[in-house]
Design brief:
Layout: H1 8-12, E1 28-30, E2 41-46, H2 51-59, H3 61-66, E3 73-78, H4 85-100, H5 103-115, H6 124-133, H7 138-145, H8 148-164, E4 171-174, E5 178-180, H9 188-199
Parallel strand pairs: 2-3
Antiparallel strand pairs: 1-5, 2-4, 4-5
Helix pairs in contact: 2-5, 4-7, 4-8
Length: 202
């Protein structure tokens, strides 16, 4: 299993602004030689099985979304290299929630079920039962599970993960080109400064 990229130091530091001169190779890594995506966006690569992703989702993702530069979109990409075979199942579960438009409703519940209640899902059928118990229509889940849209999203997330070269999560990538080096940052505010800076890079 690949190493989970810990964010403990970042998560425990106060949210104090800290202006910095950001440098390639120190604060961020260029992962593509192509121009940055035309439509600005920030993508969080995460796994439901990553405890630091759970903390990040509760404490910082709402702030990240609320403070993005104007016109910048927030996206998520579930990775499948954590959790064994269930990593792939949970990537599909995430894609289903995206297609059904219930991610905001379901994602915190899935995280809590795994990390607070220590429940390990064993199959997509068990995931479906959990979704249904939390307000998702069973027939809509079944229709989405093997749909072209969900299959395409699962494939797209897998390719994006491979192309990014990341070995751990949570990971933040700007405009499909710039990977933030979490360990170089002293605070969440500094990360937001870096997000803003990278959003303007070609």
């Amino acid at each position: 299993m690949r190493k989970i990229w810990m964010l403990a130091a970042l998560l425990l530091l106060p949210l104090a602004a800290n202006a910095a001169d950001f440098r390639e190779g120190v604060n961020y890594k260029v992962i593509s030689s192509a121009p940055a995506s035309a439509k600005p966006h920030v993508t969080e690569f995460f796994s439901y099985y990553c405890p630091h992703c759970y903390v990040f989702s509760k404490q910082y993702i709402p702030q990240l979304e609320a403070n993005l530069p104007a016109g910048m979109e927030f996206k998520q990409n579930h990775v499948d290299f954590i959790g064994g075979d269930m990593g792939k199942v949970m990537s599909r579960a995430f894609a289903i929630s995206e297609v059904l438009g219930v991610t905001k409703q379901i994602e915190p519940l899935v995280f809590s079920e795994i990390h607070e209640k220590h429940h390990r899902f064993q199959s997509l059928e068990e995931v479906k039962a959990f979704y249904v118990a939390n307000g998702v229509d069973a027939k809509k889940f079944e229709a989405a599970a093997g749909s072209f849209m969900v299959n395409s999203m699962v494939d797209s997330m897998r390719r994006a993960t491979q192309n990014s070269g990341i070995e751990g999560v949570p990971a933040i990538i700007i405009n499909d080109k710039y990977l933030i080096k979490n360990e170089s940052l002293k605070s969440f505010d500094e990360m937001m400064e870096l997000v803003t800076y990278l959003s303007t890079q070609p």
